[in-house]
Amino acid sequence: MKHVVFYNLPNAGASIVMPVLEEFAAEAGCNYFSGPDEFEQLAADMAAGQRAFHWTHSGPEVFSDHLTRGDFRFISLTRDPRDVLVSHVKDFIHRNLHEGKTENELYIEYIESNCGDMFDDANSWRALEQANVLNITFEKLKRNIPIGLRHIMDFAEVPATDAALQESCARHSFESVTQRRRGQAGETLRTQYLYRKGISGDWANRFDGEVALDFHKAFGGVMRQWDYESNGEWARSHARYKSASQNTAREKLGDLLSKRTLNTAPA
Fold this sequence. Notes:
Oligomer: single chain
CATH class: Alpha Beta
Number of helices: 12
Distance between the termini: 85 Å
Largest sheet: 5 strands, parallel
Order of helices and strands: EHEHEEHHHEHHHHEEHHH
Shape: globular
Low-confidence stretches: 249-259
Strand content: 5-15%
Helix content: 40-55%
Number of domains: 1
CATH architecture: 3-Layer(aba) Sandwich
């Protein structure tokens, strides 16, 4: 196998790839794994003549000395930025770091903060068009995980039989780890990875109209570059839908209160 650097946009679904890839890399003799906070270990492993496997959240400029090397394989995993934001906020709430703020307030706060920096790093990876860089998305990978992992294994030259790969994917699957189906309500599980819902498009259930419009204003450029939108109509449509839903809910509440008032009025 080659030296492997696996980048993922935070909360982009690394749990689909990393446990399986790490398992087969170890079986191939790569026992030198370094995580996002251990960049120096990558250089140390190489200096020691060891086959290196590094997991990172950093942009490609950190690896400028290695990007052109033929004995390196870089794998980049990204995801719909809207779902990334939902996972960030839900994890924040799960760890009780929200300081009493509502979910929507946290979305707005993240949008107005520097969360765009991580999208910049992901954008830099996605822009690389070279033979030793493989760009994949959570949405595409999730359609058929064993086939997606087979592509990754072959790219990184990590040996794995189809049967062993199928078994490993099943053992590390969302369903196996959480004991529930993707999309089924349940407790968030936070290990080395985050397991929440395991689905795409949950932003539509969580964003209100204001959040959708603010997100488009801040990150519409990224959304277009990554082909998740063409003109921002998703945000305007979502805002209209949420506004209509709120009006309908108010009308129903008003009708209910009126009926209660009539039922309790003195004869």
